[in-house]
Write a structure and sequence with these properties.
alpha+beta; 2 domains; 4-stranded mixed beta sheet; 34% helix; 28% strand
Amino acid sequence: MEQAVLEAKGKGGELLDPARLPEGKPLVERLAARREVFALDEGDIVLTFPENLSPASFHDLEGYLSLFLRKAQRRAGAGDFFAEVYAPDGIRAKEVRYFDDFLALMRFIEDFKAKNHSDILRAHLPARATDEQRQTILSTGAQFA
């Protein structure tokens, strides 16, 4: 039998000996990790993550999951039109809204412009969007990302 050595990230690089971990539990639980399962009709979504996330790691995970969801959205063809709302510094999206059609996106943009003067709105259109739709978005003053 081969020997496995596990390095615990975020804890000064200490080495864990699998033989000294508690028996009878999945490796995920024995390494102080959490496992969340979300059931969908097509199958389960399983997330495994350390129990002791640092604030920086939390923000890294948040960014990764946001990207993962965008990619899944494209694959599923859900909410092809979306808008991101940024604070005036434009560094990080405060809100993301998804829409199944162009008219719903336009209603959101019009409401946003009527209520909000300082935040930045970036609109995203699918490749199938028409030039007329692009021009309509530009005429509102919204940005394209």
